[in-house]
Specification:
mainly alpha, 7 helices, about 0% strand
């Protein structure tokens, strides 16, 4: 039996172009802020700083695609539950693998700045394993300062 969320999802090639633009913008802003002092012309520098909009563009694309999926499944029994299970199946393995990797790296001495970040991470480990890191900042649940 097909899932409640399997209406013919249409691939939209134009969104691939927008996604590519968002990736390029994010890479540009990271290159600008993380790179050496390049003494760039002010116009190019302004373009690189504009790269933060790539993250916003990803949020807009995600909202559009998620809303499209939910609207396609509107009125189908169990559609929201199927949607949530599918999202968890896609996101959780990567998220928890990353946590395991970071926990493993925290056992080694690497770079002083990275070690400080990993120490803070490991002090707040329960918050991350419970997937509550965003709420922890709102409600002050973090162990470290």
């Amino acid at each position: 039996m097909p899932s409640a969320l399997s209406p013919a999802r249409r691939h939209m090639p134009a969104l691939d172009g927008i996604r590519g633009l968002a990736i390029l913008l994010v890479l540009l802003v990271h290159a600008y802020y993380r790179g050496p002092d390049l003494n760039l012309p002010s116009g190019l520098e302004a373009l690189l700083v504009f790269g933060w909009t790539g993250v916003e563009l990803f949020f807009v694309l995600s909202g559009f695609l998620i809303t499209s999926i939910l609207l396609d499944a509107k009125g189908q029994r169990g559609a929201l539950g199927d949607f949530l299970v599918n999202r968890a199946a896609r996101l959780c393995p990567l998220y928890f693998s990353l946590l395991a990797l970071l926990f493993g790296l925290g056992q080694f001495e690497l770079h002083p700045q990275l070690d400080r970040s990993l120490d803070e991470y490991s002090q707040n480990l329960p918050v991350y394993w419970l997937y509550l890191s965003n709420l922890s900042e709102v409600f002050g649940w973090q162990v470290s300062e």
